[in-house]
Design brief:
Blueprint lengths: L1 H36 L7 E2 L2 E2 L5 H13 L2 E5 L2 E5 L6 E3 L1 H13 L3 H9 L13 E3 L1 H16 L21 E4 L1 H12 L6 E3 L2 E4 L6 H14 L5 E8 L5 E7 L2 E3 L5 E2 L5 H11 L6 H13 L2 H12 L3 H11 L6 E2 L31 E3 L1 H17 L3 H6 L5 H12 L16 E10 L5 E11 L4 E9 L6 H19 L6
Parallel strand pairs: 3-8
Antiparallel strand pairs: 1-2, 3-4, 5-6, 7-9, 10-11, 10-18, 11-12, 13-15, 14-15, 16-17, 17-18
Helix pairs in contact: 1-4, 7-15, 8-10, 8-14, 9-10, 10-11, 12-14
Amino acid sequence: MRRRRNTLSILRWTSLALIFIAVLLTSFQLIRYSRMRSSFPPGLTIGGVPVGGLNSSEAGERLVQAYGIPIELIYGNSLIQVRPSSVGFQINLETMLAAADLQRITQSFWSGFWSYLWNTLPAPEPVPLSATVSKERLIAYLENEIVPRYDQPAKEPIPDPGSAQFTEGVPGRELDIERSVVLITEALMSPTNRSVNLPYNRTMPARASFQNLQYLIRQILVKNQFNGVAEFYLLDLNTRDELSFALSKGEQIPPDIAFTAASTIKIPIMTYVYIYRDEPLGKTTEDDLKLMIEISENTPADRLLESIGGTLAPISFTEDLQKLGYKNTFLGGFFYPGASLLARYETPANSRTDVNTSPDVYNQTTPAEISQSLDDIYQCANFNGGALKAVFGDAIKQEECIKMLDMLSANKTAVLLEAGVPEGTKIAHKHGWILENDGLIHSISDAGIVYTPNATYILTMFFYHPDQLVFDPTNIMASQISRAVYQFFNPEQPK
């Protein structure tokens, strides 16, 4: 009996002990669960930031810290740190913390405790970031702080000192503000990816300025020790931009100097023929035109003039030029030696007292006016318009103007303008030089339309020296100038 009583006593105390232990463990788990429940559930993230086990205050501090870290902007080789507040970034702490707190208290205490004991607590739903960025402030920051400091303007080609060419232009960069706003906003909204490579657009260098081209041409004259008179006229046929300047002994003087036209006058003579002769011209006329332009013979020029205007053809030819607005270009007589001077013309160009190129009293022009003759043909050929059509109407036809350009393009000399451009470049041009009474060359000229990948332009150059122009060095100098102008319009072409 005593033994049974002892056994019951042991069982009783064992049960009590077990109950005590169970109560103790349950209490311990209750305390742990209560503490956990007072904080955000494990694994919870707010705006991508882990806040499990933190209370609202601690979570708020962590969020402010994570999203307050400056973002890094990489622009070229520059690293720029930007405080989020400086571009109007704000996080909505109360909204996010309230949403997180709902997950803490949604489940009842005892239901949650039971799930806790069996390790079946539901995984918390991440709370998305609630924040705003002032697009206006961000754009203003980029425009006022980044663009002025870190954008790089393209650098145009400039004359290469001591050479006859331009330096290469340098591309620039220009911030893509619209794309940058998107990428920076994404970085501001991320707690981890806080670095942005700012996008930019490459800006190609502009063509060199006409001022720099003029400087380069002057540099070429100095390099070649030219101390005579030179005048240049350049017309971009696409934009109608023009450059006209003259130098005498290295010093700049006003343009529109009277020069001996020599064979360049055959450009308007050719036009004169087509105005008064209808297609088909006839073999004799076509042969004479070819000899006049391609071979530069004078006798065919006289025959063509006389066939239209008789013995006074130079005068009627000059009158037609005057109808077109020419003030300084004329023929005072035929080309053949000993020809009578039919008229003496006083022009604004040959009346100047500041410069004198001893122009031929029979045959004069200026670079601008002989360029105008080429422009007149070009406008007629390409647009069926221009001064020729305005003055002479149906007497000059577009097809005839096209033939004139073809004829000028067949004038192959391999010198002057032609020597300065890449082989195969189309040039519709006419050169001019003569042996004067002293047996020397004093004037050399070339006027042409140059067709290039980037532009079509008229370039005319006239050179004069009172003592003598030696052809070879003058040709080298002229070809260098022609090359400089070609490169001006086509900087990407091989030098």
